Amino acid sequence: MTDSIFSKIIRGEIPSHRVYEDDFVIAILDIAPLSEGHTLVIPKEPAATIDELSDDHSAAVGRVLPRITRAIKKVTGATSVNILQNNGADAGQAVEHVHFHIIPRFKDRNENVSGSPDKNNGPGLRLDWTPGTLTAEEALELGKHIKRLL
Predict the structure, then answer these.
(1) What is the per-residue pLDDT across 32-84, written as a single tens digit (0 to 9) for each?
(2) Phi-psi bin for 71: left (phi > 0), alpha (psi -120 to 50), beta?
């Protein structure tokens, strides 16, 4: 794995606005936020993708995500959040270090999750979810293969 900007932030070589830190995880405010309070939760282990992350660091992220989310919602007044984790370049991951985005959402703001543009064309997360299909036979076969590897 290459030395990412997050590795440099973890080591204190690049300044950041840290809102949380423990032995396994840091959380920082995103410098290009999609909404007020947009925070990145970053395991300290230098793993590029979630499947490379150790169980200890994965568990640590899982323990702090809810707590950080509650604090962000309380401070910002957000009514909801998106928790986003892009895993690999083909999924839109820009920094090769596992990280989770906590993106606050606000009921009375023009942010839109339907894929259509915001009225004010301001920042925000836009999602276009186009579901496919899965037959019962396909599900049984795929499930069988996944279970075997677990």
Answers:
(1) 999 999 999 999 999 999 999 999 999 999 999 999 999 999 999 999 999 99
(2) alpha
Domains of the chain plus CATH, in order, are 5-149 (3.30.428.10)
Q: How many Cα atoms sit within 13 Å of 10 on the Cβ side?
A: 20
> What is the reported pTM?
0.85
Give the chain's radius of gyration (CA, Å): 17
- Count Cα atoms within 13 angstroms, Cβ side, for 71: 11
Instruction: Catalogue the active-site residues.
Output: 99
Residue 54 in contact with residue 62, Cβ under 8 Å? no
Q: Which residue has the tokens 């036979």?
A: 137
